[in-house]
Amino acid sequence: MRRAGCLLLALAMAALLGGCAPEEHAETIFAMDTVMTLQAWGPEAEDALVRAAQRINELDRTLSVVNEDSDVWAVNHSGGPVTVSEDTGALVALGLELWEETGGALNIAMYPVVRAWGFTTGEYRVVPEEERAALLARTDLGQLDYDPDSRTVTTPAGMELDLGSLGKGYAADQVTELLREAGVTSAILNLGGNVQTLGGQTDGSPWRIGVQDPQDLSAYLAVVEVTDGAVVTSGGYQRYFEEDGQVYWHIMDPSTGAPADSGLLSATIVGPSGARCDGLSTAAFVLGVEGTADLWRAAGDFEFLLVDEDGTIWISAGLEDRSALAAGYEDRRVEVVRP
Ligand code: ADP
Ligand code: MG
Predict the structure, then answer these.
(1) Ligand 1 pocket test, candidate residues 113, 119, 120, 165, most atoms within 8 A of CB
(2) What are the φ/ψ torsions at residue 188 (nearest 5 degrees)?
(3) What CATH number does the domain containing 101 carry?
(4) Is the CB of 91 under 6 A from ligand 1?
């Protein structure tokens, strides 16, 4: 009698423990020109992830620079005021804000420049200086007018927008919110290098996000801990071409009209908002160590991890206790940037 009772108790415990581990659900989609994986735990996750995938596809259609039905296409082919969706409006507003904050390093009007270098067509070429100057004349965001009340975008002749530096981060924010509202408490999204987390892992511990080694894409050089936040990396290794031994990548320096040449191989930004981290990671890649450190001191709402051409890792002080070098990278030089 007693032994049977014990056995029953043990079975009940096992069932309870088994029942405690929430079920994992996952979706993989191709959108915004990249592979995206969405993982979420718990009974609410399954339906919510289907809706999340639909939401990302909707954003892809609205924000795409090549889809003829998109808001961005309408703005770029209008020649007059265009009323845009809430999503596009939010990103234009954020783009303008980050343009000011980063001293122009983040510029959502770089499309003519990016296209001239061949990054939209695959017909790569080194754009000569004179042509670059003419293209840059079309990127002055000071001439863009955005009215948030009517959500109207008015661009000067020749200006073309490209929200590609913000779109994946914004999509991650939107999906995180959708999952949260559905009752999901633990999720991790990887939208082509933009990682975003909802809550912590199911056992309550923080997520541990690997930061890719820009010199060996099969390896992670560091791990960053986050709960409820984004980890976004911009790097020259994501899209590039080579000519005469020189590498040219897809992130442009708006002051030169040529690929950014700040001495960085990659820039990772950690913070609460995916869209903001996305914009800041692109800007950090343009600005380099000193410029990014200045931005960080002024803003105070994000952290960074930068890898320079010598392989040195520069981290902001707030990451000191939240990051670690990965196995095999223990000897790597790390510089901590302080306020
Ligand atoms: P990825 O999309 O590869 O993850 P980013 O978020 O850094 O990388 O965005 C890079 C994209 O943004 C480029 O492909 C280009 O379309 C556009 N872009 C290039 N340079 C800039 C810049 N200085 N500011 C804003 N957008 C840029
Ligand atoms: Mg970006």
Answers:
(1) 165
(2) -140, 130
(3) 1.10.3980.10
(4) no
